[in-house]
User: Fold these one by one.
Assistant:
Number 1:
Amino acid sequence: MRSDERKRRILARARADGRVDVVEMAAELEVAPETVRRDLRLLDEHGLVRRTHGGAIPVESAGFETGLKFRSASHVPEKRRIAKAAADRIDDAETVFVDEGFTPQLVAEALPLTRPLTVITASLPTAAALSEHPACTVLLLGGRVRGRTLATVDHWAISMLGEMVIDLAYVGANGISREFGLTTPDPAVGAVKAKAVEVSRRRIFVGVHTKFGVHSFNRFAKIGDLEAIVTDTNLSASEAHRYSLLGPKVIRT
């Protein structure tokens, strides 16, 4: 099997399963594990995968993005801890933007709803999850619904956000890096996120450690725009410190 065909199959497996295991892939391709490791190093250098112990995970890009089904099944305990820690930072905010995605949805479900709160979101699942709480007013942004994430985009959503001044925004991203900031593969999604960041007085990023050091196609915010970054303890303390030097408080939970 030619090297380029082998790498295509490895990348396809990573994207289909959410990860690739060196030993399993070597057996499937009938090559030595070191051959797979070499291919993964090359794929990592091209920004298509991110190597992990014993394998690799796919990196989201303009040509590949995971959906809610995958996101809601990966790193769930870490995401729940992140959501709780992020929700605890609401302070006196009365209007809150909750981004699309599974981790922001968990933040919404962890918000203290013992007092009146207005939640603005582009996410249909988040709107549905909060709609039955009597103390919560839910404003669902209009627009085209993306089937992959069940969230609204395009000028309707951006126009609605443009008329608001929001106390606090909980934002997610497909990638976050010190060099490129917060990124996402789809410019339509990025435009909604950028507008939410612009009209919010406070911004908190929520995301698991696999998001860090990764960049995608469309940048919508800088690290310095954030009040806080909430992630899990698999992000090293030294790397968290490097992000904190750019402005935000970094919370590892």
Number 2:
Amino acid sequence: MTKDKRVGQDESPRRRGQGELEAQVLAALRQADGAHTAGWVQERLGGDLAYTTVITILTRLHAKGAVSRERAGRSFEWTAVADEAGLAALRMRKVLDGEANREAVLASFVTGLSPHDERLLRDLLAQDSEEGED
């Protein structure tokens, strides 16, 4: 410990990983019965986040299609539309949509998969093809 550190002084809080807050907000809404306000979400997350931060996260999730909202007075009530896997898929599609050469991006993605993940992807694609034939 350096001389500049004061005894009993807390270290700065851990910085959250990218998408961690979105996942926490989405999880809170997924566990809820029905739509809820941003204040409700803030309480479920322990109240450490500012209300404006919760609103920002909800607005971003809405723009991504992961939550829906309905006017409730002067505010909104929010409902989860996607789960964490759906949110990850939305992020992946956004990255893919931002690239000019989709084929090259997808080819690079597939060649970078582990054998297990490649087999899983092939099984999912085959299952999707079989369902489309019905």
